[in-house]
Structures are given as C-alpha cells and as structure tokens.
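Dear colleagues,

As part of the handover before I leave the project, I'm documenting each prediction I ran so the next person doesn't have to rerun anything. This entry is a single chain, and its sequence is reproduced below.
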Amino acid sequence: ADGSDEIFRQRYFINLDHVTNRETAPVLYYICGESACSGAYFKGIESVAKKFNAAMVALEHRYYGQSLPSKD
C-alpha cells in the first residue's frame, strides 16, 4: 500500500431475477475483464442462475469502461 486515501467509483451490476430466497441464494460473480461492463454479461450465466435460484453480480475491471481510478 502506498498510503493513498484516494477512492474511485467502480461500476457493478446486480440481477436478482431468479432469486427466491435472499437469505440463502448463491451468488454468481462475473468479472467483465478487459472491456467495459454491462448487464448484458448476465446472458451467459442466466441459465445457471435460474437452475440454482442464484443472484448474479458483474464487476467492471478498473481501468476499463467507467471504472477509472484517475483521469489519465
């Protein structure tokens, strides 16, 4: 750690369409990788979420899309 107190906003998406019990639902976590992220990433894991009544979370990688820690 460099001792920096800087904070940046990191974009994420949550989809609870297939969750039947918020207390016990598993979570499918997807890191969007080296590109901007959108809710469209859920399409690839939606059948699994439906099967297991799971929540889906997609996280945009820093330095891509709108998750930029600095302007440069």
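Residues 46-52 form the longest helix (7 residues). Helices lie at 46-52.

All the best with the project,
I.
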